[in-house]
């Protein structure tokens, strides 16, 4: 991939980074996102944080290749430990990981947050887990996007610290408070797929179970099937 030519997914993440932001991109394999945004003149400064040496070196190489060393600092660090107070970060992107890992990174790095930063999160799976963390930590979901690339469906969640407690319903947490209102074609395709998977699992459970008491796991799946059927109506 050319560093200016971001994937649709990463380009969509970049759309939510405010102009003139001071960005921290956490898990910044190759630093593609900060480099592309800097070359476009969208951001002022960036930290590219990576915990693994190989991707960290790739990020360093990319930043050097584009002559951006002064404006993009690449740090080998775990999660938000890449951020220093003097960076004066205004936006954080964490993309291309599971929702539970993004949640763990935010939770472990809470003390590094000034709470003024915009969070732009792109979990590959486990969106509900991440929304629960945002609710518990009083972050308002201000934008949500669902998109498809190479037959994979991705969600992007944009959140900012709220001034009063945030509450989401079980449906908001599962489907996304904004996505479940717009219900576009990609949203419907995702949840049709999720529904079919759960129905197949429950069928297998019923066959394996043969008259025994319904397990808690089966009950959970059955409840989710009802929720999905409802949202798809
Ligand atoms: N953000 C890029 C994207 O969306 O295309 C790269 C995604 S890549 C699949 C995930 C990257 O996150 C890997 O390079 C991995 O080493 C890094 N990573 C995982 N856990 C991390 C952590 N706790 N702190 C920093 N980086 C992490």
UniProtKB/TrEMBL annotation:
Superkingdom field: Bacteria
UniProt xrefs under PANTHER family: TRNA (ADENINE(22)-N(1))-METHYLTRANSFERASE
Protein name: tRNA (Adenine-N(1))-methyltransferase
Species annotation: Candidatus Enterococcus courvalinii
